[in-house]
Amino acid sequence: MSNPYDSNNLNEYNPYQAPAAYEEGYQDDLVLLDEPKRFGASAGMDWIKESWRIFKLNPGLWILTLIAYFVITFVASMIPVINIIVSFLNVFFVASMAYIAYRLDMEEGASIADLFAAFSHNPMGQIKIMLWSMVPVAISGILAAIFIPNITHLSSDISIATLFVLIILLAVIPLLMAMYLSPILVMFHEMPALDAMKLSFKACLVNFFPMLVFGIVFLIIALISTIPLGLGLLVTMPMSTIATYVIYKNTLLG
């Protein structure tokens, strides 16, 4: 596959167009908008409904995929050296599950083998997402090292503890927004990791209220799903990954 960032192709490269190598596996309409679409708060409920619709297209596949994911990550966590990079695998699986959701949504065939799709489509981009995400984490760690001793000695001062929590949130929330859709953008469009994170952050920011509604309602549904021996999680956990595709499709595609 040719590199779209090669100097000979740089002037012709369009980051908002699906790469030529994906033409057979991806629909022609996978073209990003110049700006993310804005939705009202009620869209959060629509995204949950659409995620449920895609889950129902092949519930058996989603449950098997979830089980396979847990088995893989559990086994990997038991292997020396490999266990260090287990957390890196999550971005790959998020992108791969979005690919499964895409294929089902387009009424194309999907299989459990698609769980590994992201490992063969721009894998370095996924690794770079994880590396970039470590920057705010490192900053938060430094701040924690500075503030925690003071909080320990001044535990009665609620304002200091509150300030510390706010500082951590200011680092974590933007990071989550930047990482939410970026694995999909890196895989589907071969966007540079940092550009993908910026676009993901922007899409989440302009749709803050529907994302908030989605998060609150889905959390309630997930908590309820744990009641019947946790079996409901076999539905809600796949839906949470399907939702990343749904939100990507609704906010970023024309």
Description:
The chain has one domain. With 254 residues, it is an all-alpha fold. The two termini are 26 Å apart. The longest helix has 31 residues. It is built from 9 helices and no strands. Helices cover 65% and strands 0% of the residues.
Q: Which structural class do the helices and strands define?
A: mainly alpha
Shape: globular
**Total count of domains:** 1
Q: Approximately how much beta-strand content do the residues carry?
A: under 5%
| Count of extended strands | 0
C-alpha termini separation: 26 Å
By DSSP (H or I, 4+ residues per run), the number of helices equals 9
Low-confidence runs (pLDDT<50, min 5 residues)? 1-25
- The H/E string reads HHHHHHHHH
Q: What's the main sheet like? A: none
Query: Averaged pLDDT, please?
Result: 83
| Rg over C-alpha atoms, rounded to the nearest angstrom | 20 Å
Measured as a percent range, the helix fraction is 55-70%
Brief characterization of the structure:
With 254 residues, the chain is mainly α. The protein has one domain (35-252). It has helices spanning 43-57, 59-77, 89-105, 123-153, 158-180, 182-189, 193-206, 208-225, 233-252.
Summary keywords:
globular; mainly alpha; 254 residues
